Amino acid sequence: MIVDAIDAEEEEDGEIAGLVVSVRLRRDQAGRCGVCRRHCPQYDRGPGPRRWRALDLGVIPTFLEAEVPRVQCQEHGVVVCSVPWARHGTGHTRAFDDTAAWLATRTSKTAVTALLRVAWRTVGSIVSRVSADAVAGKDRFGNLQRIGIDEISYKRGHRYLPVVVDHDSGLLLWAAAGRDEATLRTFFDLLGDERCAAITVVSADAAQWIAHVVAERCRHATLCLDPFHVVQWATKALDEVRRAVWNEARRGGQRAIAAELKGARFALWKNPEDLTERQQAKLADIERTNQRLYRAYLLKEQLRQVFHLRGKKGMTLLDQWLSWARRCRIPAFVKLAASIRDHRASTDAALTHELSNARVESVNTKLRLLTRIAFGFRSPDALIGLAMLSLGGCCPPLPGRS
């Protein structure tokens, strides 16, 4: 672009309200469609000068102003011609957009809005378009072989985002609003049949809507059940036993025992190596006074040991665990054993491939932080854009930096 003039706009008291930089397109930059950037014949000179908000010059708001003609594109019709300093259809320069997006991934919304002097909803729009531009400009699905699928709640009222993570790079590949088979199919539609066939392993929880789509679109892939979710099932079964024992003690007038059991939840949940001295003593009391609850605790710990061993040793221990759980006479664990048998193939696959959803859970933890940062965005698109910038490797560098 060519700079023609720089004018200062003054307020009534004589203070400078802003700087307006008048620019024009070079001859080789003019006459391109704003959408596809193909050379097109000029349609008219446009409605008059247009302005774009630029980065401040020190503390002074700065704007670019230019006469921008419209062109006649065979594919997109009559559109404003492309300008090198801004994305099509926006009121901010590229440098302003990229700075806002970079700041949104690294600081609070209050800091972004105060520094750039824009509304938080404007930041959401900027994040969406910068993310879309970055995603369109790179191949995220090259050499994709191992993926993890999960969902995260991003808003009250059962609003979920299914997410797909690359196990090898740890990057977020895709996210969308919804929690059903149709939503997940859109990811595999983007992937294409050839790349779907190249996927070898998929890790996920036991959600049927994930299993159905994976079986349908990735016929050569092995589905691995996430060990974390299996151990979580055992922890819930253990807590169900604890509550039942506590209720029995309370109804039987054994208030001291009921009080001890109510405070024993974390001692039963935590891994043995993480127990405090007080929690170890509480666990020893349970072993002495309540064999059923302690047996449930041992069942939970042995199932955790299955996924610690992995491989053939893990599968052998899982066979022994299932045999023990079937005859333990604890309804919650008998039911759990039946559920694991139903998912035995995907459980064995997780042990064989030594794969879990740990990377996906790590991304989900960061996503939960982003949902707090993104509070105030009107649509999930802005949140997804922020997630792709922060966790998908799509964040542009600050202007002027490589």
For the structure shown, list the relevant keywords.
Nucleotidyltransferase, domain 5; 19% strand
Structure description:
With 402 residues, the protein is α/β, with parallel strands linked by helices. It has helices at residues 94-104, 109-116, 120-136, 181-191, 193-198, 208-217, 227-251, 255-262, 265-269, 277-289, 291-309, 311-326, 331-342, 344-353, 358-373, 380-391; strands at residues 2-10, 16-24, 42-44, 49-57, 60-67, 70-73, 77-80, 146-155, 159-166, 172-175, 201-204, 222-225. It folds into three domains: 1-88, no CATH class; 92-225 and 360-396, Ribonuclease H-like superfamily/Ribonuclease H (Nucleotidyltransferase, domain 5, 2-Layer Sandwich); 227-353. α1 packs across α3 (120-136), α3 (120-136) crosses α16 (380-391) and α7 (227-251) runs antiparallel to α11 (291-309). The longest helix is centred in the middle third of the chain and has 25 residues, at 227-251.
